[in-house]
Amino acid sequence: MQISLMLDILVAVLLVVTIGYAVVLNKRLSSLRKDKDELARLAQGFVETTAKAEVGIGELRSMTEILQERIGRAESLRDDLVFLMERGNSTADRLEGVVRDARDQTGAPSASAVTKPSAPAVTKPSAPKPSSRPSPESMADETSKTREPLTADPAERPAPDDVSEAERELLKALRTAG
Q: How far is CA 176 from CA 3, 52, 85, 157, 169, in A?
Protein backbone atom coordinates (compact mmCIF):
# COMPACT_ATOMS: atom_id res chain seq x y z
CA MET A 1 0.00 0.00 0.00
CA GLN A 2 2.65 2.23 0.57
CA ILE A 3 3.71 2.15 -3.01
CA SER A 4 0.24 2.88 -4.28
CA LEU A 5 -0.14 5.67 -1.76
CA MET A 6 3.16 7.17 -2.80
CA LEU A 7 2.22 6.88 -6.43
CA ASP A 8 -1.10 8.58 -5.71
CA ILE A 9 0.65 11.40 -3.85
CA LEU A 10 3.17 11.74 -6.68
CA VAL A 11 0.37 11.92 -9.26
CA ALA A 12 -1.50 14.46 -7.08
CA VAL A 13 1.64 16.64 -6.79
CA LEU A 14 2.22 16.41 -10.52
CA LEU A 15 -1.41 17.32 -11.15
CA VAL A 16 -1.10 20.39 -8.84
CA VAL A 17 2.10 21.44 -10.66
CA THR A 18 0.40 20.91 -14.03
CA ILE A 19 -2.64 22.93 -12.94
CA GLY A 20 -0.36 25.76 -11.72
CA TYR A 21 1.59 25.64 -14.98
CA ALA A 22 -1.71 25.69 -16.95
CA VAL A 23 -2.89 28.76 -15.00
CA VAL A 24 0.40 30.61 -15.74
CA LEU A 25 0.24 29.51 -19.37
CA ASN A 26 -3.39 30.70 -19.62
CA LYS A 27 -2.42 34.15 -18.29
CA ARG A 28 0.39 34.42 -20.80
CA LEU A 29 -1.88 33.28 -23.64
CA SER A 30 -4.55 35.85 -22.69
CA SER A 31 -1.97 38.66 -22.61
CA LEU A 32 -0.69 37.41 -25.98
CA ARG A 33 -4.27 37.47 -27.38
CA LYS A 34 -4.71 40.99 -26.00
CA ASP A 35 -1.42 42.03 -27.59
CA LYS A 36 -2.50 40.33 -30.81
CA ASP A 37 -5.66 42.46 -30.93
CA GLU A 38 -3.60 45.54 -30.19
CA LEU A 39 -1.10 44.52 -32.87
CA ALA A 40 -3.96 44.03 -35.36
CA ARG A 41 -5.29 47.54 -34.54
CA LEU A 42 -1.78 48.94 -34.90
CA ALA A 43 -1.37 47.21 -38.29
CA GLN A 44 -4.76 48.55 -39.42
CA GLY A 45 -3.75 52.07 -38.35
CA PHE A 46 -0.47 51.66 -40.23
CA VAL A 47 -2.34 50.62 -43.39
CA GLU A 48 -4.67 53.64 -43.12
CA THR A 49 -1.74 56.00 -42.51
CA THR A 50 0.09 54.54 -45.48
CA ALA A 51 -2.97 55.04 -47.70
CA LYS A 52 -3.27 58.67 -46.53
CA ALA A 53 0.44 59.20 -47.21
CA GLU A 54 0.05 57.81 -50.74
CA VAL A 55 -2.86 60.18 -51.38
CA GLY A 56 -0.79 63.07 -49.99
CA ILE A 57 2.15 62.13 -52.22
CA GLY A 58 -0.16 62.07 -55.24
CA GLU A 59 -1.48 65.52 -54.35
CA LEU A 60 2.07 66.80 -53.87
CA ARG A 61 3.03 65.50 -57.29
CA SER A 62 0.07 67.20 -58.93
CA MET A 63 0.82 70.44 -57.05
CA THR A 64 4.45 70.17 -58.14
CA GLU A 65 3.36 69.85 -61.76
CA ILE A 66 1.05 72.86 -61.40
CA LEU A 67 3.82 74.89 -59.74
CA GLN A 68 6.28 73.91 -62.48
CA GLU A 69 3.79 75.09 -65.08
CA ARG A 70 3.28 78.39 -63.23
CA ILE A 71 7.02 78.86 -62.84
CA GLY A 72 7.41 78.32 -66.58
CA ARG A 73 4.75 80.92 -67.29
CA ALA A 74 6.31 83.33 -64.81
CA GLU A 75 9.72 82.91 -66.40
CA SER A 76 8.31 83.59 -69.85
CA LEU A 77 6.49 86.67 -68.50
CA ARG A 78 9.71 87.81 -66.85
CA ASP A 79 11.56 87.39 -70.14
CA ASP A 80 8.81 89.34 -71.92
CA LEU A 81 9.02 92.11 -69.34
CA VAL A 82 12.81 92.29 -69.66
CA PHE A 83 12.44 92.51 -73.44
CA LEU A 84 9.78 95.22 -73.14
CA MET A 85 11.91 97.19 -70.67
CA GLU A 86 14.94 97.01 -72.96
CA ARG A 87 12.83 98.01 -75.91
CA GLY A 88 11.22 100.85 -73.93
CA ASN A 89 14.64 102.09 -72.85
CA SER A 90 15.96 102.04 -76.40
CA THR A 91 12.80 103.79 -77.62
CA ALA A 92 13.16 106.42 -74.90
CA ASP A 93 16.81 106.93 -75.89
CA ARG A 94 15.86 107.32 -79.55
CA LEU A 95 13.04 109.70 -78.64
CA GLU A 96 15.41 111.76 -76.54
CA GLY A 97 17.85 111.92 -79.47
CA VAL A 98 15.08 113.01 -81.83
CA VAL A 99 14.00 115.72 -79.39
CA ARG A 100 17.59 116.96 -79.05
CA ASP A 101 18.04 116.96 -82.83
CA ALA A 102 14.78 118.82 -83.31
CA ARG A 103 15.75 121.33 -80.64
CA ASP A 104 19.17 121.82 -82.24
CA GLN A 105 17.66 122.26 -85.72
CA THR A 106 15.04 124.78 -84.63
CA GLY A 107 17.62 126.75 -82.73
CA ALA A 108 15.54 126.67 -79.57
CA PRO A 109 17.49 127.61 -76.47
CA SER A 110 18.45 124.75 -74.21
CA ALA A 111 16.46 124.16 -71.07
CA SER A 112 19.36 125.42 -68.91
CA ALA A 113 19.23 128.79 -70.65
CA VAL A 114 15.47 129.07 -70.27
CA THR A 115 14.27 130.85 -67.18
CA LYS A 116 11.00 130.06 -65.53
CA PRO A 117 8.28 131.22 -67.91
CA SER A 118 6.01 133.90 -66.63
CA ALA A 119 2.32 133.31 -66.45
CA PRO A 120 0.45 134.78 -69.42
CA ALA A 121 -1.64 137.83 -68.66
CA VAL A 122 -5.27 136.95 -68.21
CA THR A 123 -7.80 139.36 -69.59
CA LYS A 124 -11.45 139.08 -68.86
CA PRO A 125 -13.75 139.32 -71.84
CA SER A 126 -16.44 141.94 -71.48
CA ALA A 127 -19.26 139.59 -72.44
CA PRO A 128 -18.76 135.83 -72.29
CA LYS A 129 -19.75 134.10 -75.47
CA PRO A 130 -20.76 130.43 -75.36
CA SER A 131 -19.01 129.72 -78.66
CA SER A 132 -15.76 131.42 -77.64
CA ARG A 133 -14.36 128.41 -75.77
CA PRO A 134 -10.86 127.52 -76.93
CA SER A 135 -10.41 124.27 -78.76
CA PRO A 136 -8.21 121.55 -77.25
CA GLU A 137 -5.72 122.04 -80.11
CA SER A 138 -5.32 125.73 -79.37
CA MET A 139 -4.91 124.94 -75.66
CA ALA A 140 -2.17 122.42 -76.49
CA ASP A 141 -0.45 125.02 -78.70
CA GLU A 142 -0.51 127.57 -75.88
CA THR A 143 0.85 125.02 -73.40
CA SER A 144 3.69 124.04 -75.71
CA LYS A 145 4.61 127.70 -76.20
CA THR A 146 4.97 128.34 -72.46
CA ARG A 147 6.99 125.26 -71.50
CA GLU A 148 10.03 123.32 -72.59
CA PRO A 149 9.86 119.51 -72.75
CA LEU A 150 11.63 117.45 -70.08
CA THR A 151 15.24 116.49 -70.70
CA ALA A 152 17.32 113.62 -69.40
CA ASP A 153 19.98 115.83 -67.78
CA PRO A 154 18.81 116.79 -64.25
CA ALA A 155 20.56 120.19 -64.52
CA GLU A 156 18.53 121.01 -67.63
CA ARG A 157 15.15 120.01 -66.18
CA PRO A 158 12.58 122.70 -65.52
CA ALA A 159 11.50 123.49 -61.98
CA PRO A 160 9.01 121.01 -60.40
CA ASP A 161 6.25 123.62 -60.69
CA ASP A 162 6.65 123.53 -64.48
CA VAL A 163 6.13 119.74 -64.74
CA SER A 164 2.63 118.52 -65.52
CA GLU A 165 0.99 115.65 -63.68
CA ALA A 166 1.37 113.37 -66.72
CA GLU A 167 5.09 114.13 -66.91
CA ARG A 168 5.48 113.41 -63.19
CA GLU A 169 3.70 110.06 -63.63
CA LEU A 170 5.92 109.21 -66.62
CA LEU A 171 9.09 110.11 -64.71
CA LYS A 172 7.95 108.04 -61.74
CA ALA A 173 7.26 105.03 -63.99
CA LEU A 174 10.64 105.38 -65.73
CA ARG A 175 12.50 105.59 -62.40
CA THR A 176 10.66 102.53 -61.13
CA ALA A 177 11.40 100.55 -64.29
CA GLY A 178 15.08 101.31 -64.53
A: 116, 48, 11, 19, 11
